[in-house]
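[worker-b] picked up task from shared queue
[worker-b] task type: protein-ligand structure
[worker-b] ligand name resolved to flavin-adenine dinucleotide; SMILES cross-checked against name lookup, match
[worker-b] sequence length check passed
[worker-b] input payload:
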Amino acid sequence: MNGPARSFDVVIVGGGHGGAQAALALRQHGFEGTVVIVGREPELPYERPPLSKEYLAREKPFERLLLRPAAMWAEKKVDLLLGQTVTSIDAHARTVALDDGTRISYAHLIWAAGGDARRLECGGSDLAGVHAVRTRADVDQLMRELDAGARRAVVIGGGYIGLEAAAVLTKLGVEVTLLEALPRVLARVAGEELSAFYEAEHRAHGVDLRTGIAVECIEGAVTVTGVRLADGTVLPADMVIVGIGIVPAVAPLIAAGAPVHNGVEVDSFCRTSLPAIYAIGDCAAHANAFADGAVIRLESVQNANDMATTAAKAICGMPAPYAATPWFWSNQYDLKLQTVGLSVGHDQTVLRGAPARRSFSVIYLKGGRVIALDCVNAVKDYVQGRKLVETRSAPDVAKLADPAAPLKDLISP
Ligand SMILES: Cc1cc2nc3c(=O)[nH]c(=O)nc-3n(C[C@H](O)[C@H](O)[C@H](O)COP(=O)(O)OP(=O)(O)OC[C@H]3O[C@@H](n4cnc5c(N)ncnc54)[C@H](O)[C@@H]3O)c2cc1C
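[worker-b] inference finished, payload out:
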């Protein structure tokens, strides 16, 4: 085998939110060694959330999605090896191999490879016209098909990405059917009130939204023509959008011996069990204080950025455990949802404000303490509610439900 062609103090695998922020945070905290980002996508690091929002809606050109202008990476002395994939890791020799055969040695490795869109496991899932919404390339292909006249879309999956795509496509005049396998949309991330609200909104905007639906297969010869449901119904479709989650991109870490269970396991400093290898972002399973210490993966920009900073600080010799407050957002139609905390495990919800007025919050409690808020067009609740989550306050429920009672007055130690 050839010796390493190049050597870097820090090799970052993945040029998404986590990888980009890791490089920036290293510099911010005074790291003067050499840093390279190896990224499979050909583009400079860019924001992923607009892919199912403003970019798909053509309200933002790609250039405005770039996390930093091209010149800044050179300025910060961050090398970029784009359009290249890390295929294996030799944790003992501290080298990685790229798909073109190059080997790179590292002193520290930050694995920030995110995840790949989960594919349908039924017939027809690889037909032309079946799309994920994970990368710019995915969305560009989808937009080309819209330009070529696709007018009927079936969206499979009622999570945030599926719902956002449905909202944009509807706005663009596409006839949309959305299929969710579970009895309600957003079932894994939100309470029933929020699910019911979004289901009603989508239906009011003309989406044919169906829950509790099992897909049998995708129909078509070369290109998709429809979606066959388990009950035999065939929904005609020019395109199918699949939003059923991700599979963490961790194969080289598994091969190198890292324990992986729904993501690669990391400690509170984002260290894997392999020497000098960190993992951050969507692919990293960590014990999260906001989930009562349960080992979870979070798929959010906040988590990717904050884990990146945690790993960078550890490498810079100023370790601080990951303890960031989870937050998230989603835009659908004119509805801005902002979430703080993690609602998983709640045993009570309080509705604050009126969904009919399209400005309200759902507050999640566990054992009487606030653990999360979903705020729809309710920025004040989001800003003030954050402290309730961080302090695990146990406020009077009647006051929580009263929009006239500011949340900041309900904080209790
Ligand atoms: C359409 C969409 C909308 C979203 N909306 C929101 C939102 O509104 N709010 C929010 O908080 N979050 C949102 N998210 C989630 C958020 O974008 C992710 O949580 C975040 O991008 C995770 O960052 P990451 O660095 O872990 O992974 P990614 O950003 O996915 O970056 C990983 C990169 O690594 C590359 N890679 C993978 N394997 C290799 C390899 N072996 N070698 C080299 N490179 C590799 C990938 O190609 C990718 O470019 C959205 C995601 C999508 C797809």
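[worker-b] attaching auto-annotations
[worker-b] Residues 301-315 form the longest helix (15 residues).
[worker-b] releasing lock
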